[in-house]
């Protein structure tokens, strides 16, 4: 999942336990690999998905406030402009990468996802080995 670096950092620090989205995956998702977008452009961690809540904009604001959403009410309203509802991805256990990884080294033909990209089990395993290996090079 592409996440702006400031929000990725808040997730990795455990301060932000909700990710707000206008749309979400059609298939069940239990793990998110965090891709910190430009200027970082690295895979920086992994976080579990506890629950996905479909909420009104007012409910999303309350959820954001209670779970460290990291944005102002005006930013939230701008993000959801024209929408009546949105999604709150409730985050669980977080693992910060020992060594952030260039996704192009792990995923042939990688292009940064606009929002998210599905990974198969082999891709996830390869990414986790790279991110959490104590012997990985920086």
Topology, pairings included?
Elements lengths: L1 E2 L1 H8 L5 E4 L9 E6 L5 E15 H10 L6 H7 L5 E17 L1 H4 L14 H12 L6
Parallel strand pairs: 1-3
Antiparallel strand pairs: 2-5, 3-4, 4-5
The proportion of residues forming helix, as a percent range, comes to 25-40%
Query: Largest sheet, described in full?
Result: 5 strands, mixed
Strand order of the largest sheet: 1-3-4-5-2
One letter per element, helices H and strands E, the order comes to: EHEEEHHEHH
Radius of gyration (CA) equals: 15 Å
Low-confidence stretches: none
Count of all domains? 1
Structural class: alpha+beta
Keywords:
138 residues; alpha+beta; 5-stranded mixed sheet; 5 helices; 30% helix; 32% strand; globular
Structure notes:
The protein has 138 residues and is an alpha+beta fold. The chain has one domain: Hypothetical protein (Archaeosine Trna-guanine Transglycosylase, Chain: A, domain 4), CATH 2.30.130. The protein contains five helices and five strands; from the N terminus they run βαβββααβαα. A five-stranded mixed sheet has the order 1-3-4-5-2. Strand 3 and strand 4 form a beta hairpin. The protein is globular. The two termini are 22 Å apart.
